[in-house]
Amino acid sequence: MLYSPFVKKNIDWAKERISELRKEIEYHNYQYYVLDDPVIGDQEYDRMFRELVELEGEYPELASPDSPVQRIGGEPQKKFQKVQHRRPMLSLANAFDEAELRAFYKRIRNLLESVEIDFVTELKIDGVAVALSYEDGVFVRGATRGNGLIGEDITANLRTIRAIPLKLRDNKKPEVVEVRGEAYLPISAFERINEERAQEGESPFANPRNAAAGALRQLNPQVTASRPLAFFAYSVGYLEGLNFRTQIQVLEQLREWGFPVNPQHRYQPSMEEVIRFCHEWESKRKSLDYQIDGIVVKVNRLDYQDRLGVVSRDPRWAISFKFPGELATTRLHEIKINVGRSGALNPYALLEPVQVGGVTIRTATLHNEDDIRRKDIREGDLVVVKRAGDVIPQVVGPVREKRTGQERPFTYPDRCPACNAAVRREPGDAMAYCTNRNCPAQVLEALKHFVSQGAMDIRGLGPQTLEKLLELELIEDPADLYFLTAEDLAKLPNFKEKSIKNLLNGIEQSKSQGFQRVLFALGVRHVGESIAELLVTDFGDIDSLAAAPEDEISSIQGVGPEIARSVHHYFQVEDNRRLIEKLKKAGLQFQVAGETLKGEGSFSGRAFVITGTLPGFSRSQAAEFIESHGGRVTSSLSSKTDFLVVGEGPGSKLKKAEELGIAPISESELKKMAITGGEETD
Length: 682
Ligand code: IVH
Prior knowledge:
With about 675 residues, the protein is α+β, with helices and mostly antiparallel strands. The protein has 24 helices and 26 strands. A 5-stranded mixed β-sheet has the order 2-13-10-3-9. Helix 1 runs antiparallel to helix 2 (about 40-60), helix 12 crosses helix 13 and helix 16 (about 515-520) packs across helix 17 (about 530-540). The radius of gyration is 28 Å and the shape is globular. The model has no long low-confidence stretch (mean pLDDT about 90).
């Protein structure tokens, strides 16, 4: 049907035309973004897109979440909702060389008792991990990884990525499937965006990953839509109704559903070939238009993956081979000291800007005093710098042959550059520390950490505002932020009614951050996000943690003695105890909320299968309900299944359950069981 202004439009006509345009546009998206094989020109595509936008504008009742129009970006949001992942989003252990790859192989061979093992190697895309949920083939929710258990709902932003299908293509459409992959920004787009930012006087993004993460965290999806993000799918996080045997099959199915799958993945019949592939890409990676920071090696057979299982957050069946860092040579202008929040005097180098592995670096870490002396690094030296993946760039050493005699050896300060207090370095400690507890640099760094994105995430409270608040003596510690009034804020330069209101709101909202973030925000030495998670899961509230002896803390798997000592010590310091009391008064969360994170709850250890249509729950709601009470939901019945939740039109599963002697229960019985713990199901 041709679009003509003379055709009298009516809703039936519009419906048909809209559906035609949607199909056509998604087809061309697929050709372009997934197959890399466009069949029409940009102009023609744009014309169709505009027509669809206009028609949907005219007939808002025909709008639909799977329409390509959604890709322009919807309404701005206030904040992101939290989403609990159906299965944890895992991370990967690293192998830094061939020997570590062989050790990985040996480990799994022992565990699997020496069977033949084949692998799949995939490029490790340096982007942002996301989980995409499809129900009945339609994209319904997309989330960030978050802490692996709970992420943020960024559906509206992910819809703007044209490579992500809004509908699955293949006819094997499962009722529920969660696809996982990496959203990333191509290097060419990254460079273009940075040029534009430079022209507008904005600071450039450090690397494509940060730029991609920034784009996905926009509350206004239209901003995300303006960044040409791309996507590669690499796994299925959750699935009902289909079974795979191998990772290769998973990748094939992902492609059939219409996802871009990285074409460089390869089947590897043996570890020798895996190793060859890893080395091959050390140099080949420069030819790609996206950054990769390693090779992911996965055991191909999914039954072996199951047998190998997961330790802490790392699966035993996969490993990430990390490329050695890339090197570059540049001039070291000056050695500076940054006083960290713990008071450590961190030396760093101000460099002549240089490109390393596709990004420009201007500073590099120098570790500590001994390191500078051992390597004999001097100001004015030509130095070799190294950048590896997500690690901070470092100075490897000077190029001594190029010295002119003008270079200046560095003397480490014996006074804190920020407050002039004495510096102390304990024997056996690599770092020197400022001895002044109230050192302004430490206080500022602690505040910056406290309000930062991974911690309390107080928007609109940048370093300059914090500095000003300290200078005007409106705050002394993080807790003071919660007692600021509009009058106080009015004293800040450029703070008018609206900015005051926004900041007060931001501060207020941060009170709802969970205990884990609060603990991380405190800035206890060695307590990063994942250690905070371990401590919170184990202790549940701050008073139990504060009262715990060192050996109890170090008995948690993943928490070593040094960390335990630091945590224990933190709570012995009077000032810290006082700060916590003040933060409690301010209303911050110092215990885990009611929800269970660790699979504990009334359904703990029980496996459920759902069949038929339930009266009050969609299938995914029912699964969420079960999982939030600690149970597991699987797609097929087996002797390990405990209950079959039966709705209307149950199909063959009911019969099979009877044969296996599995108890069928209704939705209302399920809800009752959540309270009773499943002991009585009468
Ligand atoms: S598999 C085993 N495959 O790497 C579960 N991850 O540390 C881990 N990544 O955050 C995921 N490319 O975002 C897998 N081909 C790939 C990947 C990949 C990049 C990222 C992923 C995750 C991190 C794992």
